[in-house]
Write a structure and sequence with these properties.
The chain has about 300 residues and is α/β, with parallel strands linked by helices. It has eleven helices and ten strands. The C terminus is likely disordered.
């Protein structure tokens, strides 16, 4: 199996970047993998020092098959940097694994991603491999499931799928019917579409929602592991478009024995559980706090029995 290159996007968070790289180095395929690091330029004087610190650190990285560093001469912003970097690398290698500078991976992350890329490469309805999953009940789901929604906390794809992506906000809005928007929003359980309209109104500048829209309009599916290989440590307010909600950060590092799903259809059980997860996030704040306290007490008591 020819391994996919890993593309890492960094900016001005030296602590997070080190955590991401150190975890990646512990992957059993790290020394056989090529690593491309895209370092965006500072957008103002306030971040020049931290960007310089990140750049000094990445120049010392060793332990991969090869490390290639691309230092941007001007600030592109995360969205444009990812669109440009992923396109260039995936077109050179035909496939790619993508990380940002706040994602801590399991030692089996690279093996899972590469094996999934190999298993599904000729199954053209599969467009995207994710390394992360929601904190949902795993019983009865097997090792992986397929569904319509893309997430980008550690992911992979192939050139023949990625090259369908064109970030055209107006066209995206015009192409979707009301019924499609409802399905795009996971049958009304979460407002993914708002990210499209926020981009259109200039409130945000993101890329991932348009990759999801591309997959969706082409009838594609995404592969999710049932137990996550990735922890997002950027939900501390330090990242672009990141809040401080830890509800999504549930590392559950597992071993490297995975059975892939041969039937290329959306898993309705997984979808319903993720819908329930999103609905649970809409509970009143006081109720959520009480539930978290009760849950913490339960698991502490269970742990110390």
């Amino acid at each position: 199996m020819k391994l996919a290159p890993v593309v890492l996007f960094v900016y001005n968070r030296p602590f997070h970047t080190k955590q991401t790289v150190e975890a990646l180095l512990k992957n059993e395929l790290a020394d056989e993998s090529e690593l491309f690091i895209y370092s965006d330029a500072p957008k103002n004087e306030e971040v020049q020092e931290s960007v310089a610190e990140v750049r000094a650190y990445i120049k010392q990285i060793d332990g991969f098959k090869k490390v290639t560093i691309i230092e941007r001469e001007k600030n592109l912003g995360l969205a444009d940097s990812i669109l440009d970097g992923v396109t260039k690398v995936v077109n050179m290698y035909g496939k790619v694994i993508v990380l940002e500078d706040d994602l801590v991976t399991s030692p089996y992350f690279l093996r899972f991603m590469n094996e999934a890329l190999e298993f599904y490469k000729d199954k053209k309805r599969v467009w995207h491999i994710s390394g992360w999953n929601y904190p949902i009940e795993s019983g009865g789901l097997g090792d992986i499931f397929l569904w319509r929604v893309m997430n980008c906390w550690g992911w992979a794809t192939w050139a023949d799928r990625w090259n369908y992506l064109k970030k055209d906000v107006t066209k995206t809005i015009n192409d979707f019917t009301t019924q499609e928007i409802y399905k795009f929003n996971l049958d009304g359980s979460y407002q993914f579409w708002k990210q499209v309209t926020d981009n259109h109104e200039g409130k945000i500048n993101t890329w991932a929602i348009f990759w999801y829209a591309t997959i969706f309009k082409n009838g594609g599916l995404c592969v999710n592991p049932v137990k996550t290989y990735v922890e997002n440590i950027g939900l501390d307010g330090s990242g672009t478009h990141c809040g401080t909600d830890n509800s999504f950060s549930k590392p559950d590092h597992i071993d490297n024995k995975i059975t892939f799903e041969k039937e290329i259809t959306e898993n309705s059980v997984a979808v319903e559980r993720i819908k329930a997860f999103y609905k649970s996030q809409k509970k009143p704040l006081l109720r959520r706090i009480i539930n978290k306290i009760v849950s913490t007490i339960y698991f502490m008591r269970k742990e110390y029995r």
